[in-house]
Model the fold of this input.
Amino acid sequence: MRKYPQQSERIKEFAEIVCSQVKSKWAHNLLKYELTAHIEDQKAAYLEAGIDEFTAEARAIEEMGDPVEVGSYFNQVHRFNRERIPNIIMWIIAGIIALIGTVSGLILLFAVLMAGRQYILAVAVGVSFIFFGLLIAFTFVTVWIGVSDMILGYQLIKDYKSRQEKRDKK
Done:
């Protein structure tokens, strides 16, 4: 757990306004910590220069800029990336397919070995099941990437056309 620097109400208010502009809730604690630390550092520099505490804090906050504008910049940096979700799902499914192929190959290999018949055939069949599972998994990955690119490309074109239509109406 992070220890927050000492905060005044003005610093808390500035950080809250900045965070209100950021849609990604997971970034709020990090942003509050970083903003508070920067403001406190600048305030300390002003205090060392002989400026009174109230004025030093006010200048340090003022130097950070407009909180709404700063928050909108942070929102661009910390936005949620929807393109990651299909890739994560794809790799999970590919991993499951590879795991099923590997486990089924090992079970078959073990069963034949326990029966004590045709050792070389058992190894060949078990290893082929393993490789077949991996082949299916990676085929799925390559097909999924193509399909997800087509879907995302379609969505980008659709968004672009809707923005053009809105602009043309104005």
